[in-house]
């Protein structure tokens, strides 16, 4: 009997999916609560923020445009080209705990988390995009609310 887990051939068990969803929602609520107390521009998400941000700008120079960071297109991220670009980016951060764990991202920095304003991404994508938004001051409005 093998003790290795093969994610590619594993069954999608409803209870496991629910547990992942609960964890993702909890992470989103925690982040939102942080933003209500600390301006995003003052917030550090990981000890790797500088490296994540520099790599994001290198791999995705379009993030230098604040409007690009403000409004994220799920279609662009999950297109064939988008998936490949993000996969290469994500693989550079395997040292970050749960770098590939699913989490929720607001598709627009001007919106709160909601059913129509949220997309499912992996944690390193969340970090990269939110670090870019925070450095640009795009999340500071939450604290002022």
From TrEMBL:
Matches recorded under InterPro entries: PBDC1-like_dom_sf, PBDC1_metazoa/fungi, Polysacc_synth_dom
Domain Polysaccharide biosynthesis: 16-143
Top-rank lineage group of the source organism: Eukaryota
Pfam families found in the cross-reference section: PBDC1
Gene3D superfamilies: yst0336 like domain
Keyword Cytoplasm among record annotations: yes
GO cellular component: cytoplasm
Compartment(s): Cytoplasm
Keywords, in A-Z order: Cytoplasm
Family designation: Belongs to the PBDC1 family.
Name of the protein in question: Protein PBDC1 homolog
